[in-house]
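Could you help me review a protein record that somebody else here produced? Do not assume that whoever made the record got everything right. The record follows directly below this note.
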Amino acid sequence: MWKAFGLGSAVLVGDALLALAVDTLARAPDTALRHLSDTLVELVLGQADDLAFESRPWTGPQAVTLEEYERMAARKTGSLTGCAAALGAVLAGVPQPLVARMAAMGRRLGLAYQAVDDLLGLWGDPRATGKPVHNDLRRDKKTLPVPAALTSGGDAAAELAALLAGPEPAAPHVIAALTERTR
Protein backbone atom coordinates (compact mmCIF):
# COMPACT_ATOMS: atom_id res chain seq x y z
CA MET A 1 0.00 0.00 0.00
CA TRP A 2 2.62 2.52 1.03
CA LYS A 3 4.71 1.78 -2.07
CA ALA A 4 1.75 2.49 -4.35
CA PHE A 5 0.15 5.44 -2.56
CA GLY A 6 2.72 6.79 -0.11
CA LEU A 7 3.25 6.46 3.62
CA GLY A 8 0.66 9.09 4.61
CA SER A 9 -2.13 7.37 2.69
CA ALA A 10 -1.11 3.97 4.04
CA VAL A 11 -1.22 5.23 7.63
CA LEU A 12 -4.60 6.85 7.01
CA VAL A 13 -6.03 3.64 5.56
CA GLY A 14 -4.65 1.73 8.55
CA ASP A 15 -6.31 4.19 10.92
CA ALA A 16 -9.60 3.89 9.04
CA LEU A 17 -9.46 0.10 9.18
CA LEU A 18 -8.76 0.25 12.92
CA ALA A 19 -11.74 2.56 13.43
CA LEU A 20 -13.99 0.21 11.44
CA ALA A 21 -12.72 -2.78 13.42
CA VAL A 22 -13.42 -1.06 16.75
CA ASP A 23 -16.87 -0.03 15.54
CA THR A 24 -17.62 -3.59 14.41
CA LEU A 25 -16.43 -5.02 17.73
CA ALA A 26 -18.53 -2.50 19.66
CA ARG A 27 -21.61 -3.96 17.96
CA ALA A 28 -20.47 -7.60 18.14
CA PRO A 29 -20.94 -10.27 20.81
CA ASP A 30 -18.63 -9.98 23.84
CA THR A 31 -16.67 -13.02 22.71
CA ALA A 32 -15.38 -11.09 19.69
CA LEU A 33 -13.73 -8.47 21.88
CA ARG A 34 -12.32 -11.22 24.14
CA HIS A 35 -10.74 -12.94 21.11
CA LEU A 36 -9.14 -9.70 19.98
CA SER A 37 -7.96 -8.75 23.46
CA ASP A 38 -6.38 -12.15 24.07
CA THR A 39 -4.76 -12.03 20.66
CA LEU A 40 -3.21 -8.61 21.20
CA VAL A 41 -1.60 -9.86 24.42
CA GLU A 42 -0.28 -13.00 22.69
CA LEU A 43 0.98 -11.01 19.71
CA VAL A 44 2.94 -8.62 21.95
CA LEU A 45 4.41 -11.53 23.93
CA GLY A 46 5.45 -13.25 20.70
CA GLN A 47 7.03 -10.10 19.32
CA ALA A 48 8.86 -9.59 22.63
CA ASP A 49 10.20 -13.16 22.40
CA ASP A 50 11.30 -12.54 18.81
CA LEU A 51 13.22 -9.42 19.84
CA ALA A 52 14.74 -11.13 22.89
CA PHE A 53 15.96 -14.01 20.71
CA GLU A 54 18.17 -11.56 18.79
CA SER A 55 20.43 -11.16 21.83
CA ARG A 56 20.77 -14.91 22.40
CA PRO A 57 23.56 -16.95 20.83
CA TRP A 58 23.04 -19.29 17.89
CA THR A 59 24.63 -22.22 19.71
CA GLY A 60 25.17 -23.48 23.25
CA PRO A 61 22.88 -23.80 26.25
CA GLN A 62 21.32 -20.35 25.73
CA ALA A 63 20.53 -20.94 22.04
CA VAL A 64 16.93 -20.66 20.88
CA THR A 65 15.36 -24.12 20.63
CA LEU A 66 12.88 -25.20 17.99
CA GLU A 67 10.23 -25.41 20.72
CA GLU A 68 10.91 -21.81 21.75
CA TYR A 69 10.81 -20.71 18.12
CA GLU A 70 7.47 -22.46 17.59
CA ARG A 71 5.97 -20.87 20.72
CA MET A 72 7.15 -17.44 19.56
CA ALA A 73 5.75 -17.94 16.05
CA ALA A 74 2.47 -19.25 17.45
CA ARG A 75 2.14 -16.13 19.57
CA LYS A 76 3.41 -13.60 17.04
CA THR A 77 1.77 -14.87 13.86
CA GLY A 78 -0.45 -17.83 14.71
CA SER A 79 -2.46 -15.84 17.23
CA LEU A 80 -3.20 -13.15 14.66
CA THR A 81 -4.44 -15.48 11.94
CA GLY A 82 -6.25 -17.59 14.52
CA CYS A 83 -8.06 -14.50 15.74
CA ALA A 84 -9.02 -13.48 12.22
CA ALA A 85 -10.52 -16.90 11.55
CA ALA A 86 -12.29 -16.99 14.93
CA LEU A 87 -13.71 -13.48 14.57
CA GLY A 88 -15.16 -14.31 11.19
CA ALA A 89 -16.92 -17.28 12.75
CA VAL A 90 -18.09 -15.30 15.81
CA LEU A 91 -19.49 -12.50 13.66
CA ALA A 92 -21.24 -15.07 11.45
CA GLY A 93 -22.94 -16.44 14.56
CA VAL A 94 -21.66 -20.00 14.31
CA PRO A 95 -21.61 -22.32 17.36
CA GLN A 96 -18.62 -22.12 19.73
CA PRO A 97 -17.14 -25.52 18.75
CA LEU A 98 -16.82 -24.31 15.17
CA VAL A 99 -15.33 -21.00 16.36
CA ALA A 100 -12.67 -23.01 18.22
CA ARG A 101 -11.96 -25.12 15.13
CA MET A 102 -11.64 -22.01 12.98
CA ALA A 103 -9.25 -20.46 15.51
CA ALA A 104 -7.11 -23.62 15.53
CA MET A 105 -7.05 -23.69 11.72
CA GLY A 106 -6.04 -20.03 11.66
CA ARG A 107 -3.22 -20.62 14.14
CA ARG A 108 -1.84 -23.45 11.99
CA LEU A 109 -2.12 -21.23 8.91
CA GLY A 110 -0.16 -18.53 10.76
CA LEU A 111 2.61 -20.97 11.65
CA ALA A 112 2.83 -22.07 8.02
CA TYR A 113 2.94 -18.44 6.88
CA GLN A 114 5.71 -17.65 9.37
CA ALA A 115 7.76 -20.64 8.20
CA VAL A 116 7.46 -19.57 4.55
CA ASP A 117 8.32 -15.97 5.47
CA ASP A 118 11.42 -17.20 7.30
CA LEU A 119 12.48 -19.30 4.32
CA LEU A 120 11.99 -16.38 1.95
CA GLY A 121 14.04 -14.16 4.26
CA LEU A 122 16.97 -16.50 3.79
CA TRP A 123 16.56 -17.63 0.18
CA GLY A 124 13.84 -15.44 -1.35
CA ASP A 125 14.24 -13.10 -4.27
CA PRO A 126 14.29 -9.50 -2.97
CA ARG A 127 12.41 -8.37 -6.08
CA ALA A 128 9.53 -10.66 -5.12
CA THR A 129 9.65 -10.28 -1.32
CA GLY A 130 10.48 -6.58 -1.11
CA LYS A 131 13.01 -7.41 1.61
CA PRO A 132 16.79 -7.69 1.34
CA VAL A 133 17.98 -11.30 1.33
CA HIS A 134 19.76 -12.39 4.54
CA ASN A 135 18.49 -9.31 6.39
CA ASP A 136 17.23 -11.47 9.28
CA LEU A 137 20.68 -13.05 9.59
CA ARG A 138 22.34 -9.65 9.68
CA ARG A 139 20.04 -8.73 12.57
CA ASP A 140 20.67 -12.05 14.38
CA LYS A 141 16.98 -12.94 14.12
CA LYS A 142 16.48 -16.57 15.04
CA THR A 143 14.22 -17.60 12.18
CA LEU A 144 13.22 -21.21 11.53
CA PRO A 145 15.85 -22.36 8.97
CA VAL A 146 18.98 -21.93 11.10
CA PRO A 147 17.80 -23.52 14.39
CA ALA A 148 16.25 -26.34 12.34
CA ALA A 149 19.52 -26.83 10.46
CA LEU A 150 21.53 -26.82 13.68
CA THR A 151 19.42 -29.65 15.11
CA SER A 152 19.34 -31.70 11.89
CA GLY A 153 22.59 -33.58 12.52
CA GLY A 154 25.26 -34.39 9.98
CA ASP A 155 28.46 -32.74 8.83
CA ALA A 156 26.86 -29.55 7.49
CA ALA A 157 25.02 -28.98 10.79
CA ALA A 158 28.26 -29.47 12.74
CA GLU A 159 30.10 -27.11 10.39
CA LEU A 160 27.33 -24.53 10.76
CA ALA A 161 27.41 -24.83 14.57
CA ALA A 162 31.20 -24.38 14.61
CA LEU A 163 30.96 -21.35 12.35
CA LEU A 164 28.24 -19.71 14.45
CA ALA A 165 30.08 -20.45 17.71
CA GLY A 166 33.31 -18.94 16.39
CA PRO A 167 34.84 -15.70 17.62
CA GLU A 168 34.12 -13.79 14.40
CA PRO A 169 30.64 -13.01 13.05
CA ALA A 170 29.81 -15.32 10.18
CA ALA A 171 28.91 -13.90 6.77
CA PRO A 172 25.16 -14.22 6.12
CA HIS A 173 25.65 -15.84 2.70
CA VAL A 174 27.87 -18.52 4.28
CA ILE A 175 25.28 -19.23 6.99
CA ALA A 176 22.59 -19.51 4.31
CA ALA A 177 24.71 -21.87 2.20
CA LEU A 178 25.50 -24.16 5.13
CA THR A 179 21.88 -24.09 6.26
CA GLU A 180 20.80 -25.18 2.80
CA ARG A 181 23.29 -28.05 2.83
CA THR A 182 21.57 -29.56 5.89
CA ARG A 183 18.29 -30.12 4.01
